[in-house]
Amino acid sequence: MRRRLLAAAALFSAALITTPLLGSPPAVADPAQPAVVSANPVDFTPHVLDGTVWALTVVGDTVVVGGSFTKVQDSARKVTYSRTNIFAYGLKDGAVRPWAPAVDSPVYALAPGATNTVYVGGAFRTVNKVEQRGLARISLTSGARISGFSAKINWGDVRAMVIRGSRLYVGGTFSSINNVGRVGLARLNISTGAVDTGFNPKLSAPGLSRPRVEHFDVTPDGTRLVAVGAILKVGSVSRTQIAMFDTSGAAATVLSWYTDAYKAECLKGFDTYLRQVKFSPDGKYFVVAATGRASSPVKLCDSAARFETTGGGKHNPTWVQRTGGDSLYAIAVTGTAVYVGGHQRYLDNPYGSDADGPGAGAVTRVGIGAVSPTTGKALAWNPTRKRGVGVRAFLVVPGGLIVGSDTDQLGKEFHGRIGMFPLP
What we know:
Elements: H1 2-16, E1 47-48, E2 52-59, E3 62-68, E4 71-73, E5 80-82, E6 86-90, E7 107-113, E8 117-122, E9 126-127, E10 130-131, E11 135-139, E12 158-164, E13 167-172, E14 176-177, E15 180-181, E16 185-189, E17 203-204, E18 212-218, E19 224-230, E20 233-234, E21 237-238, E22 242-246, E23 253-254, E24 274-279, E25 285-290, E26 303-308, E27 319-322, E28 328-333, E29 338-342, E30 346-347, E31 363-364, E32 368-371, E33 393-397, E34 400-404, E35 409-410, E36 413-414, E37 418-422
Antiparallel strand pairs: 1-4, 2-3, 3-6, 4-5, 7-8, 8-11, 9-10, 12-13, 13-16, 14-15, 17-20, 18-19, 19-22, 20-21, 22-23, 24-25, 25-26, 26-27, 28-29, 29-32, 30-31, 33-34, 34-37, 35-36
């Protein structure tokens, strides 16, 4: 155990020599990795003892964790800390930081900020007892709220955040920010939180209770954004659950790219069954994770699917990975692998179902797995985890893959809702 801890720490130290603690936030999606991570988690990550980890980000050598929880424990399980909905620990050693801002409701999204700060999104109403609904910027040095960043949503929550250059993109269930109407998706100034008035995607979902963005991602170069959720229209253009925008200029220009792959209904009552989307490190393709509670060899319920970014008009998936009726919630794309997390029991299972079990060709991949970026077929990587509701967040870091979920077993070891698989 000690050898594994030291080896992983040395790997992180080498990888982070050129990673500054201060300065501009990284303008990348999931970074590329040269290999599939080990199936044996490191031993030095802390433990979250209750609730769910919903969001992860890294600023310099600090991992910031967001979710709905109240207690955190050190890796040796000797010291318990009171931490409500947000905490931080050392990327290289797992040490729980004294940093403990007061956030009164769940944190669903995080993004790294410049000058040792972090952007926080969620369902909260106050930060450090000061009203700032759904959005905040917090110092990682002091835990103080950065008062100059004054963005506030009107109601609902923020579920995803991405920074590219001087722009902060946010998505969720809100319908305005700073009293400026923006339904589910907006672009803000990273310093002030002011709404970019030229960027208005005009999302709607006629006939549904309300439109929302479940998740979105932006290409590393900042020129394309893909959003998934309860979406049926972008302005006057029809788009079912997924839409792509040109974000290279001042406006949110909907592209001619579209797919009908998610028009088919899964279990009745889902206004959207798409849960997460991630671009590849080169931005040439993206992968979508879906729930749906329905097994089908032709529909995209409970699946991961790859789509190519380039080209206009109708797109069909390049490949589809089906679980046979179990939800997938989280995706990470590293070039060598596409990691999928949920509460699945199987992959390569288009002919299986909850009632009848696995179908022909299915492989066991409990709660977590990896598939080939080229074919979508399951890779040999099979660490397993306690299923629970499922993995909610992946974070690709220079030395491995961090996993956030709602259970306490990962790779056949105790890991309370946080764990990390190192690169071999």
